[in-house]
Predict the structure.
Amino acid sequence: MVAHRIDTVLEPPRAAVRGPLLGPLALMFGRGVRLAWRRRVDSAASLAFFLIVAALFPLALMSEARSGLAPAATWIAALLATTLGSLRLFTDDAANGVLDQLLLAPGGTGLAVGGLLCAHFVTVGAPLLGASPLVALFYDLSFEQWARLAVSLLLGLPALCVLSALGAALTLGARAGGLLLALLVVPWGVPVLLFGIGAAQGISNGAMLLLAAATLFALALGPWGVGAALRMNAE
């Protein structure tokens, strides 16, 4: 009964998403993308913040060595931008009661939360990756330098999105939630930040492998961790 109500609230039934595994994942992914489109100003603000922070470093330095600073500046901007893009990740669902129904649904919330996280990456993380050519222009990067930076962002941004979603779940409904979110996510993101910078600099393949391992770990446990945080917050 609860599962039927969730389907009714979120989206009209579709035969293509009725599988026992892909159904909740596809359903929440589609809904997350539609909600993000309705409040696309938030995604645009996150992208603009990323570009502004990335552009401030070369403007402040105005030196020939600024290309060496590109990995660190870009990854710091990405960490802050994904945190900013997670401020309202669960607020609408909590306000209209959909989140409560999701937490009460049989079969657990892992797959449904996984769909929300996929939508979060598509609407917040992917635009940052798409903006990496502009970052290459800011820092006068060669094609090889930009390629390493883009690959590092591709591997690491999903982990940042999962961490920011976990912080948003833990701070949902709290006063000064934005400040608490930053205080939680930024320390958590430091290992991913360091691995990403090392991978973008191309110092060794070890940093790239560690970055990929961190992302796989976040993708494997993140949906269930976020679901547990939402359930704890609801109680």
Notes: Residues 205-234 form the longest helix (30 residues). The radius of gyration is 18 Å.
